[in-house]
Amino acid sequence: MKPSSLTRRRWLGATAATAGSIILSRPGRLDAAISDVAETKHFWYRGAPAGPYIDSQRDNKAFGFGGGKIFLSEDNAKSWAHSADFAEAANITWSCLLKNGNVLFATRERLFLSTDKLKTHRQIVVKNRDGGDYLPHQPVNPELPGWYFHSLDGEHVWDVNGREMLVWGNYCNVIGGAVPVNIYYSTDSGQTVKIAYSFGRNPRFQQKGAAPDAPMLGDAANPLLCRHVHNVSYNPAEKAFYACTGDHDLGPSHECHWLRGTYDAKADAWSWKVLVSANSDSRFKCGGINFVDGRLYWIADANGPKVGPEHDRGVFTCAPADIADKSKHTLLFNPKFESANMIVQDGVMLATHCAPASTYANGIIYSPDMGRTWAQYDLKEFGPRSGCRIHRKNSDGWFRLDLRKGWIDRAEVMFIKPKP
User: Fold this and answer.
1) E-assigned strands of 16-68?
2) In angstroms, rounded to a whole number, what is the distance separating the alpha carbons of residues 336 and 155?
3) Which of 188, 241, 245, 289 has the fewest Cβ atoms within 10 angstroms?
4) Whose CA is closest to 229, among 294, 268, 184, 264?
5) CA 172 to chain centre
6) Are 287 and 230 spatial neighbours (Cβ–Cβ below 8 Å)?
7) Cβ distance 65 to 55 under 8 Å?
8) What are phi and psi for residue 91, nearest 5 degrees?
C-alpha cells in the first residue's frame, strides 16, 4: 500500500468538501509522517500535528502544553486562541476540561485551576476528609515528588443527579517517585477538590532513603493496599462509582481490588465497599470500566508472558451485581495480551495493548458494534507504544489517546475516528 499523501490540514479541507466520503490509504512505510491521516477497515487514524502536546479534549475544546506554556483551543486543536506562561509545563501529568469552561490541570504534585480561558490560574489545595488541607509529602529527592494526580484512564466527569461531578484516581508508583494512592472528587467544577478514598500504607512504595522516623505514605487507618488506581467509572443506573486497582500480590493479600462507592451530596460523604480482591493473574486486574444501559464492561490486564500459557484476559461483561461471580461473566473477546484501557461510546469499543507485554508494536483492539465483531490492528508506524488516557470523541468525531513509551513514559498523541 502507498503512504498517505494527505496532511492533517488537507484532510480537513477534503472532508469538508466531500462530507465524509473520502477514502484514504494506510501508510505502508514506517517513516510516513504520523500526522498524516491513514485508515484501517474500521477507522481513520492520525498522530497529532506539530505544536503543543494535546493533553485532553472535550467537545470542541482541547488543552495542551509545551515550551513553558499552557494552551487552550476552541476548534479541536486546529488553532490555539488562548495561552499563558507556565514554567512547569514539562511536568504536567493530567488535565480535565469542565462543562462550564474551567480547566483543571496538574503537575506531578500540584493542582491548578483556570476559570477564564488561561488568562489566570491558581493552585488548588486538596481537602482531606476532615476538611483540612491535604498537602503533598516532602520528597527526599525534590526531582521525585510522586505523581499525585496522573491517571491511566481519560474520562473523569459525569452527570450525577443533574450536576457535573469529577472523580478520578492516581496511576502512580511506576516512575516519578513514591506517592500515596487516592481517589479525588469535585462537585463545583474544580473550585474545590477533595479526597473520596485513601488507600493504606504500602511498604513496597515508600521513599527510598527516607529517615527511619519519617511518616509512611498512605492512610494509616486503612489496611487496604494497592500500587495505584487503574480506573474509576460511574454507573448512572445505580448512581454508584466503581474503581479498580493494581497490581501485584502481597503474600496472602493483594493489590488488585474492585471498589464500589456511593456519594451522599447532602452530607458530602462517601460510602465505599470492597467487592473483589484478587491475584494479579486474573481478570480482576484490569481497567477500561464502562457502563452501557446499566451493564458493566471491562478489559483484563492479567499478568503473564507475551507467549505461553493462556491467562485470564479479555473483554468481559456482566451485570454490575455479578462482578464477583466469574460464572456470570461473558467473555466478548480475548486479545491474548494485557490491556487496561478501553472506552465505549456510540456502540464503538476501543481498547489498546500494553506494548511491553504484547507482540504488537502499537496494538489497537476495536469493535464497531458493542462486541458482536472484533478486529485488532498494529499501527507500527508510531513505534512500540501503549495507548492510554482515552478521551471521548471531540465534536469532529475523533477519540484522543496518549501513546506511551513502555507503558508510562509520555511519547505522542494519536487520534482515531470511527468510520460510519
Assistant:
1) 38-39, 43-47, 53-58, 61-66
2) 25
3) 188
4) 184
5) 12
6) yes
7) yes
8) -100, 10
Q: Which domains does the chain have, with CATH numbers?
A: 1-39 (no CATH), 40-418 (2.130.10.10)
Determine the residue type at 362: N
Whole-prediction pTM: 0.91
Q: pLDDT digit string (tens) for 307-324?
A: 666 789 999 999 999 999
Cα(81)–Cα(92) distance, integer angstroms: 20
Q: What is the mean pLDDT of residues 165-171?
A: 98
Q: Is-contact 383 372, C-beta < 8 A?
A: no
Closest by CA to 329, choosing from 313, 350, 348, is 313
Q: The dihedral of CA 112, 116, 117, 119: what is its sign?
A: negative
β-bridge partners, 349: 344, 367
Q: How far is CA 128 from CA 41, 108, 125, 193, 198, in A?
A: 49, 18, 10, 9, 9
Which grid cell sits at 5? 499523501
The string of pLDDT tens digits covering residues 111-141 is 999 999 999 999 999 999 999 999 999 999 9
Q: Which residue spans within 142-239 are E strands per DSSP?
A: 157-160, 163-169, 182-186, 194-198, 228-235
Classify burial at 332, counting beta carbons within 10 Å of its beta carbon; exposed 0-12, middle 13-18, buried 19 or more: middle
The amino acid sitting at 9 is R
